[in-house]
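Below: protein 1.
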Amino acid sequence: MSKLEGNERWKTKMIMTEHVEQYEDQQHQNTDKMITIEERTMVRDLILLPYIDTMVSKSLKEIEHSSNILKRAYLMAGKAIQRRIMQDTYQLQKELKQRNIRVLADEQEEFLVYYKIFCRGYQERFGLTRDVMRTEISLRLTKYTTELGAILKDTLK
């Protein structure tokens, strides 16, 4: 917001219409460079996917060392979920690169994890609380297992 916006005296001054159009175009271009809500969601997902992959890997290691009868089935399901996570990660990286957005880890505090987002010439700091991360990871894992269940169901019909 410039100093002139919100200043009622500015409206009474004579200005050329081309200057008004240039100013409005400049403001519109600046908003085009800012990160959108959809892109912010993509960044959040890109941040969370490595955590999800790590959790699935740990579970797979635990299953490998167990004496469960369904060990092979669990391992196959876990590997399928990991492949899906890798596909999603690759797609998000590709999409964000096309949109000229980069994400770098910044710092971690007790309950917050910060990342730097470089978006079309702008820099922004993005933070996630651990509780939000846990919730989102749980939702994503549920989604992956539901998708796998649907695939298995269709295959067994």
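Below: protein 2.
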Amino acid sequence: MRERLILLPGWAFGPAALEPLAGVLRERQPHLQVEIAPLPALEQPSAWLDELDARLPADCWLAGWSLGGMLATQLAARRGDNCPGLMTLCSNPCFRSRDDWAAAMPAEVFDAFEEAFRLGPQDTLKRFSLLCSRGAYDPRTLARQLQVSLLDQPQPIASAGLRLLAELDGRAALQRYVGPQLHLFAGGDALVPASAAEALLAWLPDVEVDVLANASHGLPLERAEDVATAMLAFMDEGEDD
């Protein structure tokens, strides 16, 4: 097992949201160097991937939650053999629905959310944390945990992340990256429908895809033990291949 794993958080969340998962991974695999890298704080969406590529170490496993997974996908495809494996958590190849990718958030729902964020960012972020916890076993507790992890950042930076959620299409990158891939989805996710797992398998039958039942978009925080088990088993398999 190559000894370094980088975790990327989701839109609007800081590294704290992934600390429980990182803690379990470190406890289970003490020789694995697990780092949580914050998403770029840039107002230009087009610059985010270049910034990550310049900042993150080479030859490390990449994993990301939601938008973090979408960016990890693009970075893995760019790095090729220098990325030993890719893992995504509740991360849709296309977050906003398209004519040829219906298993996503409906375009009109996303557009309404983006407009609401423009008009009232704080209220919208609170609503977002509630959406992330919908479908959880204990949504109230999870929502409180997620709210603590929300970033306090300038609105133009958060808006840039929303633009990436709307515009990124990871299908070509997933197809181009030939290393091992694991994509975990949540059965009760209110933001990334579980049907995205089936759509992804139809697009790329050779990747590993799983859906954790009775789980929300806050999967890595809500089910850190289960996610860590799946990730470490996958990494062991990938190293054995």
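The first strand starts at residue 4 and ends at 8.
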